[in-house]
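Per your request, structure below.
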C-alpha cells in the first residue's frame, strides 16, 4: 500500500528585503516563479494535496497559488513557521498520511532529494533536510547523534557549543499529519524572537517517544532567497546545474558561463551552442543544430541540423524544420519554416508559414500588422523572395514563385510566377554629364 502524501508550502512572509512591489515568491529563477518551482517539486513527489500558507497582504501570491491549483490557508498575523503550519491544519482535516513542509522561497530542491526525505519514514517518524553551509550564520543548528536528530536549535537560542555545529536546517521537514499537527499545537513562543518555531517539534515528538533523522542536501540546492543578492545566487546555481546537465547529455557549450537556460530548455545531443546565447522559456533544439553567438530564443522549436544566428532573435511560436537557416540579424515570431528553407540576413518574419526550400532574401519584411490586427503571410515550397521585399499580409506567395527584389507585394502571387512590385527603372541618357556641366557653370559665376 502506498502512503498518502501532502505538502504545505509556507509563503506568508512579508519579503521586505526584496524591495519589490511583487511578492518575493513570484520572482523567477530560470524563467519560472519560485512558487511554481516548489509546487512542481511537491507534485513530482506524488502529493495529493498542496496547501499554500499566505498572508492577507499577499494577494498576488494567493492568485498565483490558486492558478496552480493549490489550496489556500491564511496566516494573519505571521507568528512564525510553527504557527504557519498550524494555519494549514484545517485545510488538511481528515488527511491521514505524510506531510512535507516546504518554503516557497527555496526553489532549487530536486525531486530525488525530496524522495530521500520521504524514504526516511522507513526508519524514523520525522525527517528534516539538512545541509552544511560555508557560513552557518543564522540557520537553525541540527543536534544529532549518528543518524538520529535530537533537536533543531535556532541560532538565536544556541549555546556557544551549539553554534559551532556545521549541520543546519534547510526548513524542509516531514512527519505524519497526526504527528505534525499534534506537535505544532504544543509549540510555544517562549523564545528570543517571540515566535512559534516549527523547529521545536523535533524535541516535542522525541518527548512522545518518536524518532527524527536528517537527510543531507547540498547548500546550492537549499539556498533560500531573501533579497536580490540571493535571487542572483539562486539563478547562478540553477544555470550552473543546467550547463552541467547539458554537457553531460551530449551538448557542446563553447563558453558555458555565457549560455543561459530556462527551467524547461531541451537541447538534444550534438547540439552546439556558441558563446552568449539566451534560452527563454519553451525552447527545444533538436540534434546536430548549431546556435551561433548572441542569439535569443524563446517559445521556439528548432529542427535537426539547423543553423541559427549569430544574432538571431527567435520569438514564441517559431517552429523551424530540419536543415533550416535563420542566420544573421533575423527576427521570427509565430513562424513555421519548412525543411531546408533559408532566411539568411536582416529579416523580420512574423505570422508566417514558409514551405520547404524557400529562399528569403536579405532585408525581407513580413508586414503583419495594420495597427489593429495581425495578418498571415504564406509562402509556398521553393519560392524565391528577392532582397528587400515587403510582404504586406495577408498575402500568399505560390510555390516556385519569384519575387523581384525591392517589391512591396500586396497581392497574391500564383505558383511559378515572377512578381515585380516596384516602379519600373528609367535610364536617362547623358543626364549625369549635363547635370555636372550646369553645376560647374553656376559655381564659376559665384566665385
Ligand atoms: C527558518 C528555520 C531555520 C532554518 C531556516 C532555513 C524556523 C523557526 N527556523 O528560519 O531553522 O535554518 O528557516 O532557511 O523555522 N513564514 C511564514 N509565516 C511565518 C514565518 C515564516 O509563512 O509566520 C515562511 C516565510 O515566508 C518563509 C519561511 O516560512 O518562506 C521561513 O521563514 P523565515 O522567517 O525566513 O525563517 P528563518 O528565520 O530563516
Ligand atoms: Ca529565511
Amino acid at each position: 500500500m502506498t502512503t498518502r502524501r501532502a505538502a504545505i508550502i509556507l509563503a506568508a512572509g512579508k519579503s521586505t528585503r526584496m524591495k519589490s512591489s511583487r511578492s518575493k515568491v513570484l520572482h523567477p529563477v530560470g524563467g519560472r516563479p519560485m512558487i511554481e518551482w516548489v509546487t512542481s517539486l511537491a507534485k513530482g513527489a506524488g502529493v495529493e494535496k498542496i496547501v499554500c500558507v499566505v498572508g492577507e497582504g499577499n494577494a498576488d501570491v494567493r492568485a498565483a497559488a490558486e492558478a496552480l491549483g493549490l489550496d489556500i490557508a491564511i496566516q494573519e498575523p505571521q507568528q512564525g513557521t510553527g504557527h504557519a503550519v498550524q494555519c494549514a491544519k484545517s485545510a488538511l482535516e481528515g488527511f491521514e498520511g505524510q506531510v512535507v513542509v516546504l518554503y516557497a522561497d527555496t526553489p532549487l530542491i530536486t525531486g530525488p532529494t525530496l524522495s530521500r526525505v520521504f524514504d526516511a519514514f522507513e526508519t524514523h517518524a520525522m525527517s528534516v533536510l539538512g545541509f552544511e553551509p560555508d557560513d552557518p550564520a543564522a540557520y537553525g543548528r541540527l543536534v544529532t547523534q549518528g543518524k538520529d536528530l535530537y533537536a533543531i536549535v535556532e541560532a538565536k537560542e544556541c549555546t556557544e557549543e551549539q553554534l559551532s555545529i556545521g549541520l543546519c536546517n534547510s526548513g524542509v521537514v516531514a512527519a505524519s499529519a497526526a504527528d505534525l499537527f499534534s506537535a505544532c499545537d504544543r509549540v510555544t513562543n517562549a523564545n528570543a524572537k517571540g515566535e512559534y518555531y516549527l523547529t521545536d517539534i523535533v524535541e516535542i515528538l522525541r518527548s512522545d517517544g518518536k524518532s527524527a533523522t536528517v537527510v543531507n542536501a547540498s547548500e546550492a540546492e537549499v539556498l533560500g532567497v531573501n533579497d536580490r543578492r540571493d535571487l542572483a545566487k539562486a539563478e547562478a546555481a540553477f544555470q550552473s546545474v543546467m550547463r552541467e546537465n547539458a554537457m553531460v547529455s551530449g551538448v557542446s557549450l563553447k563558453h558555458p558561463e555565457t549560455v543561459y537556460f530556462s527551467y524547461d530548455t531541451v537541447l538534444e545531443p550534438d547540439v552546439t551552442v556558441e558563446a552568449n546565447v539566451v534560452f527563454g522559456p519553451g525552447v527545444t533544439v533538436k540534434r546536430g543544430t548549431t546556435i551561433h553567438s548572441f542569439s535569443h530564443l524563446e517559445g521556439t522549436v528548432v529542427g535537426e541540423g539547423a543553423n541559427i544566428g549569430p544574432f538571431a532573435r527567435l520569438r514564441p511560436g517559431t517552429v523551424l524544420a530540419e536543415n533550416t537557416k535563420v542566420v544573421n540579424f533575423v527576427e521570427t515570431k509565430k513562424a513555421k519554416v519548412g525543411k531546408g528553407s533559408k532566411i539568411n540576413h536582416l529579416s523580420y518574419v512574423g505570422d508566417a508559414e514558409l514551405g520547404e526550400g524557400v529562399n528569403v532574401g536579405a532585408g525581407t519584411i513580413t508586414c503583419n500588422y495594420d495597427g489593429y490586427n495581425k495578418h498571415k503571410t504564406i509562402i509556398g515550397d521553393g519560392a524565391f523572395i528577392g532582397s528587400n521585399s515587403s510582404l504586406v499580409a495577408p498575402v500568399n506567395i505560390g510555390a516556385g514563385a519569384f519575387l523581384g527584389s525591392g517589391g512591396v507585394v500586396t497581392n497574391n502571387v500564383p505558383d511559378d510566377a515572377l512578381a515585380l512590385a516596384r516602379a519600373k527603372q528609367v535610364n536617362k541618357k547623358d543626364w549625369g554629364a549635363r547635370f555636372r556641366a550646369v553645376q560647374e557653370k553656376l559655381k564659376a559665376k559665384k566665385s
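The pocket of calcium ion (ligand 2) is lined by residues 224, 226 (CB under 6 Å).

Regards,
D.
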